[in-house]
Specification:
It is a single chain. With 68 residues, the chain is of the alpha+beta class. 19% of the residues lie in helices and 28% in strands. The mean pLDDT is 89.
């Protein structure tokens, strides 16, 4: 088994997962949550989303909440 390289700084590597089947909340009827965790600091970012979001929707969420 190959060991995964450890990051040397924040946001060099991240884990991403979704929590789905949540009750609809908010004015935009969010029903899922995208969880992005920095591997170095273990700092999580929770992004409300929809469980039918497309790849483009997901990319925009990451761009707007993590990159910029």
């Amino acid at each position: 088994m190959i060991k995964i390289q450890e990051p040397s700084g924040t946001w060099e590597m991240a884990h991403m997962d979704w929590v789905t089947s949540e009750p609809q909340v908010g004015d935009r009827s969010y029903n899922a949550c995208q969880v992005i965790v920095d591997r170095f600091s273990k700092n999580p970012i929770f992004v409300p989303c929809h469980n039918d979001d497309t790849a483009m929707d997901t990319a925009l969420l990451i761009w707007n909440r993590v990159v910029s």
